[in-house]
From TrEMBL:
Domain HTH luxR-type stretches: 192-257
Protein name: Regulatory LuxR family protein
Tagged with keyword Transcription: yes
Species per Swiss-Prot/TrEMBL record: Pseudonocardia sediminis
A GO molecular-function descriptor: DNA binding
PROSITE patterns (UniProt xref): HTH_LUXR_2
Keywords: DNA-binding, Transcription, Transcription regulation
């Protein structure tokens, strides 16, 4: 592994490790876009999202790079990109959330004319001739992904780095979602209890999934980590709550306000 690759990986590991300790309820897309641009010498990056099958949304960084054509680009992204963007055609037609660049899209999905027309737009919109897609969540009605563009193709080594980053960012996205699902019902009282017990956002995400009766293996799949890692988190959660098993952890968490207490129907209702 070259020195520059090691430096790139180190920067990203530091960023994700820092973000995993923060009580985030949404993906910090600007920080990610900022580092993508710096790491890969690109003029700009875009974060796209779609929730519940609703309209496509997006944020760009840096804003000044996109400002001259932002209205045209936004209209094209919302209304035309699914059919005319080589990468979006790939994701839509295959249903896969692969990290790949335009040059890697099979010709059966995006023929020469589709690619040529997209590159003509790229020349007009700042000289972008190559672009890579980095999906972090790609379900039919719930999608989040980053796009990174520049004038020259990404090398094989850069693509390998981007695919490692996709794994890191997907894991971060999973935790953000799990923590958001915990923090909503828990409210301010839950946050105060978590601070008092020194539970980390990762541990709270695990605790919230534990309360939904998921196994350690299932929690690992949700968070993008190994079952062994989940077991380590559970050991720390048990120690901080002063319990020795899953049931004790959930009951103790309900008692101190970390988890909502299930409503018990009144007699005769």
């Amino acid at each position: 592994m070259g020195t520059r690759t090691a430096q790139r990986d180190g920067e990203w590991l530091d960023l994700v490790a820092d973000l995993l300790t923060q009580p985030l309820t949404c993906l910090p897309d600007e920080k990610v876009c900022r580092l993508l641009v710096r790491t890969f010498d690109a003029p700009g990056s875009v974060f796209h999202f779609q929730h519940g099958g609703g309209p496509l949304g997006g944020r760009v960084w840096p804003p000044e790079h996109f400002a001259p054509h932002i209205e045209e680009q936004t209209h094209w992204a919302v209304h035309e990109s699914d059919a005319r963007h080589p990468l979006m055609r790939y994701h839509r037609l295959t249903g896969l959330g692969s990290c790949l660049q335009v040059d890697e899209v099979p010709s059966g999905i995006a023929d020469r004319r589709t690619v040529r027309d997209w590159r003509a737009l790229g020349r007009r919109w700042g000289g972008v001739q190559e672009q890579v897609s980095i999906p972090v969540r790609f379900l039919p009605r719930d999608r989040r992904w980053f796009l990174l563009g520049r004038s020259d193709p990404f090398t094989a080594q850069e693509m390998a780095t981007l695919r490692r980053l996709q794994m890191l960012l997907t894991g971060l996205d999973h935790q953000v979602g799990a923590f958001a699902r915990w923090s909503g019902p828990a409210g301010s009282a839950g946050a105060e209890a978590a601070d008092a017990l020194r539970l980390t956002p990762r541990e709270l995400a695990v605790l919230g999934l534990l309360a939904r009766t998921l196994t350690a293996a299932a929690i690992g799949r949700r968070l993008g980590v190994s079952e062994r890692t989940v077991q380590k988190h559970l050991q720390r959660i048990y120690a901080k709550l002063g319990v020795s098993d899953r049931l004790g952890a959930v009951c103790r968490a309900q008692t101190v306000g970390l988890l909502p207490v299930p409503l018990v129907p009144a007699a005769g209702s």
